[in-house]
Amino acid sequence: MAPRTLVMATRNPGKVRELAELLRDLEVRLLSLADFPELPEIPEEGETFAANAAAKALAVARLTGLPALADDSGLEVDALGGWPGVHSARYARDRTHPAAPTDDDNWRKLLEEMREVPEGRRQARFVCEIALAWPDGRLWRARGECPGVIARQPRGSGGFGYDPVFFLPEMGVTMAEVGLELKNRLSHRAKALAALRELLAARRGEWEGESAAPA
């Protein structure tokens, strides 16, 4: 039997590598949106990570006719009232950066916003909501969080996004300083995917394509 095919609903190369590593022991053939250049961009217009992940997964599943895995993830900073939240990827968008800002643009803006915030009030968390959708409308969800604090200066060259300024106090390093293997045990995306894998194991029949009502 040929392996099942799963579309990772992202074009972000860092996220593709991370998800592929996390899914490597599943009997699935992994594709990403890079394999479907004709597909339009799926707008992220929801007010929550969960809404964006579900909308993206359902849209990609319908457009490709294949099961699709989507995540929406970002950074919530307590001192900023939960911002940048769902705006994490476009936090630095303004007149200076009217197009999509780079990762460096975003974390530099964050450090500037946090410049006067003292130690002890720099708590933050990475949040990830994952959705797995089928073309028939079935949808599974899972959530993961990784707590930390916002560093004063960037450190490390690994990872992507806000990793260089997300400090893990219990380890004394930023997320950009841990290797991919360790990150894939610690990260919000790893925890969300671990929860989803539990669903896959518990409801294997549905994953293998047996008919079922939408969840």
Describe the structure in your own words:
This protein has helices spanning 13-22, 49-64, 103-113, 180-186, 188-202, 204-207; strands spanning 4-8, 28-32, 68-77, 123-133, 139-150, 166-168, 173-174. The protein has 215 residues and is an alpha/beta fold. It has one domain (4-207): Maf protein. Strands 2-1-3-4-5-6-7 form a 7-stranded mixed β-sheet.
Major sheet attributes: 7 strands, mixed
Percentage of residues in DSSP E strands: 15-25%
| Sequence of secondary-structure elements | EHEHEHEEEEHHH
- How much helix is in the residues? 25-40%
Radius of gyration: 18 Å
User: Are there runs of 5+ residues with pLDDT below 50, and where?
Assistant: 210-215
Alpha-carbon distance between the two ends: 27 Å
CATH class: Alpha Beta
Write down the overall geometry. globular
The strand count comes to 7
State the helix count.
6
- Broad structural category: alpha/beta
CATH topology: Maf protein
What would you say the CATH architecture is?
Alpha-Beta Complex
Q: How many structurally independent domains?
A: 1
Strand order of the largest sheet: 2-1-3-4-5-6-7
What would the average pLDDT be, to the nearest integer? 86
Topology:
Elements: E1 4-8, H1 13-22, E2 28-32, H2 49-64, E3 68-77, H3 103-113, E4 123-133, E5 139-150, E6 166-168, E7 173-174, H4 180-186, H5 188-202, H6 204-207
Parallel strand pairs: 1-2, 1-3
Antiparallel strand pairs: 3-4, 4-5, 5-6, 6-7
